[in-house]
Amino acid sequence: MRGGEGRSGADREILAAPAPRVSVVLPARDGGAYLADAVASILAQSFADLELLLIDDGSRDGAVAALAPLAARDPRLRLLENPGAGLVAALNYGLGQARGELVARMDADDFARPERLARQVAFLDASPDVALVGAQVAFIDAAGAPTGERSRFPTAPEAVAAALAARGCVIRHPTIVARKAALLAAGGYRAPCEGAEDYDLWLRLSERARLANRNYPPPCHEGQSLNPCPHGSHRFAAAQQRAIDRAGAPAATA
Q1: Parallel, antiparallel, or unpaired: how do β-strands 146-150 and 138-140 relate?
Q2: How far apart are CA 114 and CA 116, in angstroms?
Q3: Burial of 247 (0-12, 13-18, 19+ CB in 10 A)
Q4: Distances (CA, A) of 140 to 108, 208, 218, 224
Q5: What is the pTM of this model?
Q6: 47-58 pLDDT per residue, tens
Q7: Would you say 222 and 142 are in contact if contact means Cβ atoms under 8 Å apart?
Q8: 12-247 belongs to which homologous superfamily?
């Protein structure tokens, strides 16, 4: 559904149904060969009380449209449109459309292990003082085979807070599950920080809540680095500095 358009009968039926516990937000622009696998990995989660918001941000490769038959069979998959408005707009649109009290993130080229959401939801249920939990990342090649590389992010909230200020973005965006109310209270995503919109939000969120990582890894497809955030470019460095400046945090060091 395009933002601002009237709702179809199917949309009204979905929204009238009981809200799921978790809303998974997956923006996609030309998701290519990996998108169907990413979607399947979420719909196959052992924690089934979810909706998957697949937000088409102006795709031209047909990958999102090809999933329409699956959406017709599984009402948990909601195909939404945010045509070409950009990642930050798509993320905020997803937050606005999310019906769950918890919001998870997923990228079009990632693959979530079946127990990912169950473990993260259980952790948040047991840790009411934690607003967001991420996970480690294991890397796989284009054929889906493990490369043997994985992240080593800090896990305890105190260590995560210190690393966010001193090292940079140590929470991988597509691994998180967060309390929706906390994300909205922190102001959501900000367009001036696009490219480091996740880090900007984590900095603001960490001023009012505790953030954590866990050691179970959802694997990622090839082409993503082992930098604290997978951006490793001058563009990301500039966006990260804007996030630091806007949040008033000290400059992060490598």
Answers
A1: antiparallel
A2: 6
A3: buried
A4: 14, 35, 10, 10
A5: 0.85
A6: 999 999 999 998
A7: yes
A8: Spore Coat Polysaccharide Biosynthesis Protein SpsA; Chain A (3.90.550.10)
